[in-house]
Design brief:
The structure holds two protein chains of two kinds.
Chain A: H1 5-19, H2 24-27, H3 33-44, H4 51-65, H5 71-85, H6 87-91, H7 95-121, H8 131-153
Helix pairs in contact in A: 1-3, 1-4, 3-5, 3-8, 4-5, 5-7, 7-8
Chain B: H1 2-11, H2 18-38, H3 42-73, H4 77-114, E1 124-133, E2 141-144, E3 157-159, E4 164-171, E5 176-180, E6 187-192, E7 198-203, E8 209-215, E9 226-229, E10 241-249, E11 257-263, E12 272-277, H5 289-297
Antiparallel strand pairs in B: 1-2, 1-12, 2-5, 3-4, 3-12, 4-5, 6-7, 6-9, 7-8, 8-11, 9-10, 10-11
The chains are: A mainly alpha, B alpha+beta.
């Protein structure tokens, strides 16, 4: 079996974590699992996972969330593009620098989703929308370590 | 230096460059969004695609289902007994109410016949269960476990035991999506049960909150008034509770007063829901209004 299927499995797990039902007070702080996983892969293996995969998984998320088709494709592919275009620089960052970058990317992601939704349905902005960016960053070091361990042990290339 | 560039380019040797790919993806997404809003046939395609990805939904639902299952396995005998007693009491009380209701209903029908007004026929119903709650804060939608194979249709009213919850917006094969009345894009025609003043209750974008639109300062509204569906939009049946007026701000400098209401249904803790069908188009396995009484007796 090709170890590349681990990439697909991790992305599917990301999608499931994204839609798993949670009590609404916790739900507000749900980390952007899928975005983090996509960022990791586009940093580690930019020739395997980049804009195309991000757009496709974004479409799946749109279907599962019931948002207009393309909202999450649009919002996911921009941060993933930024990572894939600068992957060499990001790999050499220290964890602290990485965290700051991830925070910016998550905020960007949420702002894009908000802008697109605003354009479609005219929702009002609330700072609560940016909480997931903070919780995502808290999970990033662990996720990074976990995925790197799997990537090395399974020799995913 | 040239060597370095060659190496860098090798990574993306196959296919178009990264930036080019981004442009294609973004264009396609924008086309998707515009099509979704403008083209009618997209919603059918969406139904098929939703059915394709619904296994993911079932997998995501599993941990909750397992927890529910184990919770029901490990409840103590004592809790079960207490719950049983509570439910038996409730049924007795309900049945007593139902007896009066049947008499009143018959009386009402007779009176309507005398007035030559059309007799209102009851709705057929089916119980559905909550499958998933949408977690994006921008829209209030839930997924239920009944779909096209149960004859669910778009625009179908959805209720729970305390009031109107929302309407179906998307039908999949075995599940469908409900837009809650608190969603910012949703509005429902209601009347105040005290004096029959008609208003439109739009979603406030906050769970369990509605905002009444275009209410004149002189309108006879009071805090605590019950809002019931007026049936004017032909989507929701008449006379079901929608919400209770919570606050009225009459600021004369604004053209309309700002009225907010609390929904009757507890939209943040939904578990079981009722789907309603008009009698003409009801599926065979739904409960008719007469069956309902028997069901309670059993």
């Amino acid at each position: 079996m090709n170890n590349r299927s681990f990439i697909i499995i991790s992305i599917i797990i990301g999608i499931i974590l994204q839609i798993i039902p949670m009590p609404s007070p916790v739900d507000l702080y749900r980390p952007d699992w899928l975005l983090l996983i996509l960022i990791y892969w586009s940093m580690a293996l930019p020739n395997r996972v980049s804009v195309g995969v991000a757009a496709f998984t974004g479409l799946v998320i749109d279907l599962l969330y019931g948002t207009s088709l393309g909202v999450h494709s649009f919002a996911l592919s921009i941060p993933v593009y930024l990572v894939a275009a600068n992957y060499q620089r990001l790999r050499n960052h220290s964890m602290l620098q990485q965290i700051m970058t991830i925070l910016m990317l998550c905020v960007l992601y949420h702002l894009i989703v908000y802008w697109l939704q605003y354009w479609i349905t005219g929702i009002e902005f609330s700072w609560l929308f940016l909480w997931p960016a903070v919780s995502s960053v808290l999970f990033w070091p662990w996720l990074f370590w976990l995925l790197r361990k799997f990537r090395r042990d399974l020799r995913v290339t | 230096m040239a060597c370095l560039f060659l190496n860098m380019n090798k990574v993306f040797a196959r296919g178009p460059s990264l930036f080019y790919r981004l442009c294609i993806v973004l264009t396609l997404s924008v086309i998707g969004m515009v099509m979704d809003a403008k083209v009618e046939s997209v919603s059918t395609a969406r139904t098929y695609l939703t059915s394709l990805v619904s296994p993911l939904q079932y997998v995501a639902d599993m941990p909750g289902a397992i927890l529910d299952w184990s919770a029901s396995r490990f409840t103590s005998r004592q809790t079960l007994l207490v719950e049983n007693e509570r439910l038996t009491n409730k049924i007795t009380l309900m049945n007593e109410k139902l007896q009066r209701f049947t008499v009143l209903k018959q009386e009402n029908e007779n009176l309507r016949r005398l007035l030559d007004a059309p007799v209102q026929s009851g709705m057929h119903r089916m119980i559905a269960e909550l499958m998933a709650v949408d977690n994006n804060p921008y829209s209030h939608q839930i997924v239920i476990n009944k779909g096209a194979i149960h004859d669910v249709y778009e625009g179908q009213p959805v209720l729970d035991d305390t009031g109107i919850v929302g309407q179906i917006v998307e039908v999949g094969t075995t599940n469908s999506r409900v837009l809650l009345i608190s969603d910012i894009t949703h509005a429902i025609p209601v009347r105040i049960s005290r004096n029959n003043v008609s208003v439109i209750a739009g979603g406030a974008g906050v769970v369990t909150e509605l905002s009444l639109e275009h209410v004149a300062h002189s309108a006879d509204l009071q805090e605590g008034d019950l809002l019931v569906s007026s049936g004017l939009g032909k989507v929701f049946p008449e006379g079901y509770p929608v919400g209770v007026i919570e606050s009225i701000v009459r600021d004369e400098s604004k053209p309309f007063s700002k009225v907010t209401a609390q929904t009757s249904a507890q939209l943040d803790r939904i578990k079981y829901l009722l789907l309603l069908w008009p009698p003409e188009s009801a599926p065979a396995d739904s409960l008719s209004p007469d069956q309902l009484g028997q069901k309670v007796d059993e």
